[in-house]
Amino acid sequence: MPTIYIFDNQFIVSIFGCGKCHHIFGDNFLNFRNALAGKKLYSLPISKTPLPNQYTLNMNFAPNDNQKMIAQVCRDFADKEIRPKMMEWDESQHFPKDLFHKMGDLGLMGIYIPQEYGGSGFSYFEYVTAIVEISKVCGSIGLSMAAHNSLCTGHIYYHGTKEQKEKYLPKLAAGQHIGAWGLTEPNTGSDAMRMKCTAKKVDGGWVLNGTKCWITHGISSDVVVAIVRTGELLDSKGMTAFIIERGNPGLKAGKKENKLGMRASETAEVIFDECFVPDANVVGGEAGVGRGFQQAMQILDGGRISIASLGLGIAVGAYEAAVKYAKERQQFGQPIANFQAIGFKLADMATKIEAGELLTMQAAYLKNEKKPMTRESAIAKYYTSEISVQISTDAIQIFGGYGYTKDFPVEKFYRDSKLCTIGEGTSEIQKLVISREIMKGNI
Ligand SMILES: Cc1cc2nc3c(=O)[nH]c(=O)nc-3n(C[C@H](O)[C@H](O)[C@H](O)COP(=O)(O)OP(=O)(O)OC[C@H]3O[C@@H](n4cnc5c(N)ncnc54)[C@H](O)[C@@H]3O)c2cc1C
Fold first, then answer.
1. Which of 283, 296, 303, 251 is nearest to 167 (CA)?
2. Which DSSP helix (H) or strand (E) runs through 204?
3. Alpha helix locations (H) across 107-148?
C-alpha cells in the first residue's frame, strides 16, 4: 500500500508502497482532500499511474525520542571524551582504540544490530543521528564508527550465518572487538571486479593471498571481513567474503597511510600471506561462496548512508562554528554576519544542510523499510559529501586568517570532509550509480 502525505497543502505525494510517486494537483487535489477529510491519511490504496518524474519523500523526519536521547548521549560523550583530545590524535595520527571500547559501552558500536546479538536494536534513523552527532565534533571518530558499524559488523549481520552472527556480533556490537572491511586493493578501487586477492580451496577451508589497501582499522582490528577472488576475473559471481580473525598467522598489517584528514581513523594495508581460513568463516556459509560481490554492493548501499551522515555531521559542525564566529567577529565596527556576503554564505550553508538531512533520512527510511535504496543512498552520499566540502571551505573563508590555523576547528572539518567524496565510492561513482538507476527506469 502506498503512503499518502499532504505536502504544503498544494498536492499529495504518495510514496514507498510501490516505489513510485503520484501527484494530484489543483481541483483534483481539493476533491481528493475533501474526500479524505477525517480519514486516516495513510495506507490508502490509490492508482499506480507512473509519472515521468517520481519523487521519494517521507515528510515525517522529525527526530523520534530515541534519536533525541542518542543525540544527547553522543554530544555529552564527544564533549567529554573526544573534543579535548582530538587535535592531539589528529597531529600524531593516533587511533584511540580505547575510545571505541567506551563507545561500545554506550551502545554506539552496534546501533542497528538486534539486541539478541548484543546490539542496541535501533533503526537507521538512530544510526544516522549518532554518526552525525559524533562527526559534528570529529570526522575521524565518525568515520571509524561508521566503518565498524556498517561495513564489518553490517556485513556479518546482513549476510552471515546464524552461527557467524552468534559468534562475532556480540563482541563487535559491544565494542570489545573492532571490525575492518576490505574490498579495495592497490590497483582496484572503483573497479572492484578486477580484484587480485585470491582464495584457493583446500581441505577444510581456503587459503588467501594478496593485499587490500586503504582499510579502516587495517592494523588495530580484531575481525576483518574481506572480499576476495574465488573465481574468474570480471565474473561478478567469482568473489567471496571471508571472516578473518586477528591472530591468524597469515593475516598481516601493512603500511599505515599518512593522510590529509581523518587522521585519527586508522587506514592501512591488510596483507594475506598463505592465510588459511576455515570453511566456517565463509560469510553466509556454503551458499555464500561466489556471493561476495553482491553482498559487498548491498553493504555499500547502507555504507553510503553512513558516509552521507558523516558528511552531514562535518557540514553541521563547520556551519555552527561559522555562525558563532560570524556573530562575534567585528570588522568595520560591526559583526561580520551583518555583511550580506557572509550572511548569504550562511544562508547557503543552512539550505544545503537541510537538503542533505532530508536526502539522508529518506535513504535511512528506505533502509528501515527494507526497500530498494541504491539510488537514494547514492544521491544522499553524493550530495552530502559535496556540500560537506563546500561548507567547510566556506567556513574557513568566514574565519579569514584564523580559519587557516589549527586554533579553530574549521581547518580540520575542511581536511576531514574531503574523504567523504572519495570513500565508499567517489562522487563520480555515485553519479554512475545514479545514472544507471535512471537508465533502469528508476527516475
Ligand atoms: C580514509 C579512507 C578510508 C578507506 N576505508 C576503506 C575501507 O575500510 N575498506 C575499503 O575496502 N576501502 C576503503 N577505502 C578505499 C576507498 O573506498 C577508495 O579509495 C575509493 O573507492 C576510490 O578508489 P581509488 O582510491 O582506488 O580511486 P580510483 O578508483 O583509482 O579512482 C581515481 C579517480 O578516477 C575516478 N574514476 C574511476 N573510475 C571511474 C569511472 N568509471 N567513471 C568516472 N570516474 C571514474 C574516480 O572517481 C576518482 O576520481 C578508504 C579510502 C580512504 C581514503
1. 283
2. none
3. 124-137, 139-146
Query: Distance between CA 404 and CA 396 in Å, rounded?
Result: 7
What residue owns the CA closest to ligand 1's atom 6? 215
Domains by residue range for the chain, with CATH: 1-59 (no CATH), 65-176 (1.10.540.10), 181-293 (2.40.110.10), 297-439 (1.20.140.10)
Ligand 1 pocket test: pick from 211, 422, 430, 434 the residue with the most ligand atoms within 8 Å of its Cβ.
422
Q: Is the pTM of this model over 0.90?
A: no
DSSP tag of 149: I
- Strands (DSSP E) found in 251-291: 251-256, 267-278
Catalytic entry in 133, 386, 411, 424:
424
**Ligand 1 close to Cβ of residue 192 (< 6 A):** no
Phi, psi of 348 (to 5 degrees): -60, -40
Identity (one letter) of the amino acid at 387?
I
Give per-10-residue mean pLDDT for the chain (443 aa): 38 35 41 43 36 48 92 97 98 98 97 97 97 98 98 98 98 98 97 97 98 98 98 96 98 98 98 98 98 97 97 98 98 98 98 98 95 96 98 98 97 98 98 97 88
End-to-end CA distance of the chain: 20
Number of the ligand 1 atom closest to the C-alpha atom of 427: 47
Please list, in sequence order, all residues whose beta carbon lies within 8 angstroms of the beta carbon of residue 144, skipping any fewer than 6 positions away.
95, 100, 216, 217, 264, 265, 266
- Give the integer Cα–Cα distance in Å for 245 and 85: 30
Contact 237, 290 (CB under 8 A): yes
**Contact indicator for 147, 182 with CB cutoff of 8 Å:** no
Q: Is 15 in the pocket of ligand 1 (CB under 6 A)?
A: no
| Residues forming a β-bridge with 14 | 4, 22
Q: Is the CB of residue 264 below 6 angstroms from any atom belonging to ligand 1? A: no
Residue 10 CA to its chain's centroid (Å)? 34
**Ligand 1 lined by 228 (C-beta under 6 Å):** no
Helix/strand/coil for 212: strand
Environment class of 213 (CB within 10 Å of its CB; exposed 0-12, middle 13-18, buried 19+): buried
